[in-house]
């Protein structure tokens, strides 16, 4: 028996490669997440940048809690079973009236994972809509195999390598995933998706959490992940601890090690060595 999704939703995910919207927390809890993020940004003098956008659930207790949220994990369990790792997390932030965009891509392109059994829970901290550049997806495209991509390193592309699909994408088939604060979308790692710039007078903030069943492995080197539900009988990933306090020195040191190792996987073949060196602002 599924935990929170209906059989029809599970079938739709299998057919379309995404589900949205699904409520995770009430709007006031999402406003509290946004406030916590923006208080940190105010203290550090600007938008979250560089490797702080990568796996921040290892640095902030409230994000460690969010990646373990029962509503998210119940939905992911309905799709991928009860032994689950949070492989990664990252912020996708589009500033007010900013040209930042996400090119059409498949997440699976550079992640080095052994099977395309990976799902992203994209949790909205602000509304996501037509004006502020909500994510768009091509239904059913996750059934395609890996599509060739080219790296553009385009200035305003939020993706690490500015990677984009190297063949024509039929945009007329795309569906926009509008979300209210506290709602999430779920998308499959092979789903073709992207998003246009934010033309609105407010920020668009999303927190993308990547989940895998424990049986999936990393094929491109050493990697680590956070066990968020069940038991890891495979041990493909080094286990990551949970932060007891925000930004504790031991976790900051571990986070630096992990981000450097992950950057070597993601930027392989490009000469870029870290998120901070890269022109891109995140890790996808
Ligand atoms: O936030 C966006 O607009 C795109 C997000 C994305 O590409 C992802 O979560 O895989």
| Main sheet attributes: strand count, strand direction, barrel closure | 7 strands, mixed
Mean pLDDT: 93
Structural class: alpha+beta
Q: What is the gyration radius calculated from CA atoms?
A: 17 Å
Number of strands: 13
Which bin fits the share of residues in helices?
Answer: 10-25%
> Which molecules are bound in this entry?
2-oxoglutaric acid
From the spread of the alpha carbons, the general shape counts as globular
Q: Approximately how much beta-strand content do the residues carry?
A: 15-25%
Terminus-to-terminus distance = 33 Å
Strand order of the largest sheet: 1-9-4-11-2-12-13
Give me the oligomer status. Answer: single chain
Instruction: Determine the number of helices (DSSP H or I, runs of at least 4 residues).
Output: 5
Q: Are there runs of 5+ residues with pLDDT below 50, and where?
A: 279-284
String of helices and strands: HEHHHEEEEEEEEEEEEH
Task: Reconstruct the topology from this structure.
Blueprint: H1 7-16, E1 18-23, H2 27-44, H3 61-66, H4 70-80, E2 84-94, E3 102-105, E4 119-124, E5 136-137, E6 149-150, E7 164-165, E8 175-176, E9 183-188, E10 193-195, E11 204-213, E12 224-229, E13 238-239, H5 249-266
Parallel strand pairs: 12-13
Antiparallel strand pairs: 1-9, 2-11, 2-12, 3-10, 4-9, 4-11, 5-8, 5-10, 6-7
Bound molecules: 2-oxoglutaric acid (AKG).
